[in-house]
């Protein structure tokens, strides 16, 4: 519910965007006098796809996000896009696989990336889980990633039980390894050490943000928008825990 | 019998041989080759033996004389999973290809996708690299085609299935599988009734290359034959960028999904009927 709470708090007085699946909350509002579009994926207990009722990013969500972002691009004013990220996972199900959930998520990533290339500042604000394919579709194409500091804010490629099964480990073994290998950890501080976040913020009530919390986050969003000078993702490189990513690029350029 | 004598299997080739098979003879040049030993900095400490190329081959060369970069994932190393180094090799190569185009050099790209997606031993760095790959495909695709090939036998899953969905064109064989979530993970998350990871015919019927092609989720369906795959990729490279990207058809797919009765569990024929063909 954090995604919805933060959406409601940040988009107070904004104009809701209609014509999208009920699992998406999209509104055009103002940030420091500038028009912005807020986008969140939320729970929908009546979702026609039963595996996407708890805030997962599924078929309707992927294609719907693409539509919401494409419409913002079509407005032509390069308004910033603020993705509020609280996505527990992609939808795991037979219908989803059969109907090409990968293509739906590709559409969402495509639209966010094109918006960024077209000059829209794209910011992802992580207020809850940012898991795997769900995060790739909703947030990971942003110019700037901002996370709230809280144990409930986590980025990962797979839930612990499945990750343990796939890597043939027990959950306990997985947790022990995660504590010593930063990219495997589930906590936001380990994630921050990879250099992927532009900023982390502490708020007083993450579940139900206060007026001060909202003001602080808005201030950070405004700064993030002003900080964007290139349309690419190069701002994520440079951390010691991601040194190989820079080294490989340097070698490729030398040998190209 | 004739088939066996005249066909050469592509699926049986490793990533490096596949790449060589697609490029014009004598033009293959590998970047960050295995002798440079740029390996994963994360695997050894977890008791996994790293590989000298981290399971990804990047090669430049030409196809029909056109400048091409190929990124090939070796399905035999750690299930074709992408870690920091392998992911950065693919993303970095695509980024340089896009830069080439901005400098007037029309470099195209081919991705040979045999991958389970993120390498869980490098979890968040694999995921970040895949986001970079998505970004780079969308960028390069503005100028020149990016062609994805899923030949088998690993298939293409996880975040890299999204990469496949971003490609200008996607080529599959009967051995290919393409899906977001691996069968084991779906079974783990949703239960055996939802998805039986041991039922291979069931899985191929939903996510196999033939089904994906017949559902309009892939552009070419080819035999597991080196010559046919090479000719298909060449023709697509010459064709230029498509008129409409599949990943930009939100209105079409939302309309089709709205027509679906999602209550009963789904059958492969339902997907083909729903997605195939243009209707008024």
Architecture overview:
The complex is a heterodimer of chains A (256) and B (280). Chain A is of the alpha/beta class and 256 residues long. Chain A has a single domain, classed as 2-enoyl-CoA Hydratase, Chain A, domain 1, CATH 3.90.226. Chain A is built from ten helices and eight strands. In chain A, strands 1, 2, 3, 4, 5, 6, 7 and 8 form an eight-stranded mixed beta sheet that branches. In chain A, helix 2 links the parallel strand 3 (34-41) and strand 4 (81-87). In chain A, helix 2 (59-75) packs parallel to helix 4. In chain A, 55% of the residues are buried. Chain B has a single domain (2-178, 218-248), classed as 2-enoyl-CoA Hydratase, Chain A, domain 1, CATH 3.90.226. In chain B, helix 3 (84-102) runs parallel beside helix 4 and helix 4 runs parallel beside helix 5 (159-166). Chain B contains eleven helices and seven strands. Chain B is α/β, with parallel strands linked by helices and 280 residues long. The mean pLDDT of chain B is 95. The interface between A and B is large, with 78 and 86 residues.
């Amino acid at each position: 519910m954090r995604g919805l709470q933060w959406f409601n708090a940040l988009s107070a007085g904004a104009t809701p965007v209609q014509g999208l699946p009920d699992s998406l909350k999209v509104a055009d509002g103002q940030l420091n006098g500038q028009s912005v579009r807020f986008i969140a994926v939320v729970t929908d207990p009546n979702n026609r796809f039963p595996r996407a009722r708890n805030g997962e990013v599924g078929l309707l969500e992927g294609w719907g996000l693409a539509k919401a972002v494409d419409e913002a691009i079509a407005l032509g004013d390069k308004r910033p896009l603020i993705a509020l990220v609280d996505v527990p996972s992609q939808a795991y199900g037979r219908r989803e696989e059969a109907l090409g959930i990968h293509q739906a998520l590709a559409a969402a990533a495509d639209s966010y990336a094109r918006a960024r290339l077209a000059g829209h500042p794209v910011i992802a604000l992580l207020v809850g889980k940012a898991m795997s394919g769900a995060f790739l579709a909703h947030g990971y194409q942003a110019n700037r990633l901002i996370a709230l500091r809280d144990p409930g804010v986590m980025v990962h490629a797979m839930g612990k039980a499945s990750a343990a099964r796939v890597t043939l480990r027990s959950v306990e073994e997985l947790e022990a390894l995660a504590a010593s290998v930063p990219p495997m950890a589930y906590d936001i501080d380990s994630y921050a050490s990879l250099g992927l976040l532009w900023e982390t913020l502490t708020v007083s009530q993450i579940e139900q943000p206060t007026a001060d919390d909202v003001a602080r986050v808005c201030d950070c969003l405004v700064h993030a928008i002003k900080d964007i000078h290139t349309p690419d993702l190069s701002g994520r490189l440079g951390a010691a825990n991601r040194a190989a990513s820079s080294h490989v690029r340097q070698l490729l350029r030398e040998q190209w | 019998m004739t088939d066996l004598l005249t066909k050469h299997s592509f699926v049986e080739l490793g990533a490096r041989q596949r790449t060589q098979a697609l490029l014009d003879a004598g033009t293959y040049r590998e970047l960050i080759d295995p002798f440079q030993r740029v390996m994963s900095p994360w695997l050894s400490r977890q008791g996994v033996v790293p590989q000298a190329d981290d399971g990804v081959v990047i090669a430049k060369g030409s196809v029909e004389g056109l400048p091409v970069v190929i990124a090939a994932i070796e399905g035999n190393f750690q299930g074709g999973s992408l870690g920091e180094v392998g992911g950065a090799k693919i993303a970095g190569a695509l980024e340089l290809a896009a830069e080439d185009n901005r400098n007037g050099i029309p470099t195209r790209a081919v991705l040979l996708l045999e991958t389970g997606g993120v390498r869980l031993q490098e979890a968040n760095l694999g995921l970040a690299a895949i986001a970079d790959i998505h970004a780079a495909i969308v960028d390069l695709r503005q100028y020149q085609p990016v062609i994805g090939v899923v030949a088998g036998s690993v298939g293409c899953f996880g975040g890299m299935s999204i990469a496949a969905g971003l490609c200008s064109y996607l080529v599959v064989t009967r051995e290919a599988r393409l899906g977001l979530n691996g069968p084991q993970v779906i079974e783990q998350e949703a239960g055996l009734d939802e998805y039986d990871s041991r039922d291979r015919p069931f899985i191929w019927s939903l996510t196999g290359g033939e089904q994906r092609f017949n559902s309009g989720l892939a552009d070419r369906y080819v035999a597991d034959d080196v010559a046919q795959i090479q000719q298909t990729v060449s023709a697509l490279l010459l064709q230029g960028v498509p008129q409409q990207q599949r990943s930009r058809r939100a209105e079409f797919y939302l309309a089709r999904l709205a027509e679906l009765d999602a209550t009963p569990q789904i059958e492969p024929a339902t997907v083909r009927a729903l997605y195939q063909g243009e209707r008024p």
